[in-house]
Amino acid sequence: MKRLLWIAAVATVAVVVLVVAKQPASAHHSSAPFYDDTKRVEAVGEVVRFVFRNPHSFLFISAPNASGDVVEWEIEMGAAVSMRRTGWTPETIRAGDPIKAVGQPSRAPGTYGMCCAQITRPDGSPIRP
After folding, report:
1. What confidence score (pLDDT) does residue 45 get?
2. Domain for residue 102, yes or no?
3. Which CATH number goes with the domain that contains 49?
4. pLDDT-flagged residues of the chain (< 70)
5. 3-state DSSP helix/strand/coil % of the chain, to nearest 5
6. pTM for the full model?
7. pLDDT tens digits along 62-88
């Protein structure tokens, strides 16, 4: 009887380990130290370049700031491997494309960065990969 209980316990642990190991790893570092999640900023302008890479992709937009000066916004995006799973490629967004980004602003004073942005066309229509 003890041997049967021991085998059942080992089998249960093995099943639990397999189930947990099959789950995708979604843990990641927080963006809170770098971006202010209590605020939103908007940049409407033209794509300068789209850097599609791991661990983070970046979108650079030439757009006016609050005082009307044209600046280059840096938008931190997800990993290329994750974005590719949803259909994104390096050609999804090209230099010269008009774009609108709304996201969390950088905490670094004097910089023009954002993350966790919703990327659309200037009229609000979605950009589909």
Report:
1. 96
2. yes
3. 2.40.50
4. 1, 3-32
5. 20, 35, 45
6. 0.72
7. 999 889 999 999 999 999 999 999 999
Domain assignment of residue 105, yes or no: yes
What is the rounded CA–CA span in Å between residue 106 and residue 76? 10
Helix, strand or coil for residue 41? strand
Number of structural domains (the chain) is 1
CA distance 120 to 108: 25
Expressed as residue numbers, the domain containing 57 is 41-120
φ/ψ bin of 31: left (φ > 0), alpha (ψ from -120 to 50), beta (otherwise)? alpha
For residue 33, give both structure tokens: 């130290």
Pairing of strands 98-105, 113-120: antiparallel
Q: Examine residue 30 and state whether it is found in any structural domain, yes or no.
A: no
- Evaluate whether residue 5 is within a structural domain: no
